[in-house]
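does this look right to u?? alpha-D-ribofuranose version
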Amino acid sequence: MQKRPIPIILDVDTGIDDAFALLLAAKHPDLNLLGVSCVDGNCPLDQVVANTMLVLDAAGRADVPVAAGAARPLVAEPNYALAVHGEDGLGNINWPKSTRKPVDQFAVEFLRDLILGHPEKVTLIPVAPLTNIALLLTEYPEVIANIEKLVIMGGSAGLGNATALAEFNIWHDPEAAQIVFSADIPTVMYGLDVFYDVHIGELQLTNLKNSELPAAKLAGEIGEFIAGILGYPITIGDAGAVCAVIDPAGLELETYPTAVITDKGPARGMTVVDRRPYRDTVENERALPDARDVAVALKVDSERYAKLWLQTITS
Ligand code: RIB
Ligand code: CA
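got this back:
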């Protein structure tokens, strides 16, 4: 029997790998992309919104509504990643901008209405700082009943990338991440332990860039930009979190108590994952404070997800 497409919403800070995720989410037949919310992160909010609409147009999905959300973190000052994503957040490739406008509704109410208005539970895929999601869960906790799960690109059970200990999306707004990670929602953490492992090589990017298909051509051009900064092969990054919804068997998950550090010290923005096998036997005062069980992605079938992404964006 034909499975019904999975209803999903993406929360993005488009950026290059957010674009990879949007192209996959917009084009894969097993997904029903209800809408996209935007937050500041890789680049300022206005640029995130413009980039997001440009990417959805390239995917042939101008029907997907886009909403602008938080322009800054809850407490921290914004810290953009323009060195990696380019001054415009999308590889400075001067792709034609969308003529569309975002919806005339703040992203938090947009998310509330999309989630509560859908007849099935919705899978939320944040691949950006969690400011919008924290505001949503704080202001409208009733949405939790209609969220199937969170599949978050963020965090790490090991080392960081924004700092020695913290991953960028969590580090950009740790207070928001703490709110989201402590909410009572089934959560998959697609973090740095797998984020860099799904590779696209130079020849594959050249073929994409030479494609007649706008989605493939866009992916190839922005992929070549980030390869010029970080080298080959590139990672599909955020798109891996979308792969995890389409094909969960490609990911190895283990569930551990996880908490976010919001102190102002060197660990700020760190996701602490308690993997001690004896953790339940030690005295409570040594348990991780404010932790909640999260399904942490520790291994990914890299070739499987790279093939899934390439086949979909060239279809
Ligand atoms: O740490 C990687 C994350 O930070 C990705 O979501 C990337 O787009 C940036 O937002
Ligand atoms: Ca992102």
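The longest helix spans residues 214-230. idk if thats expected tbh
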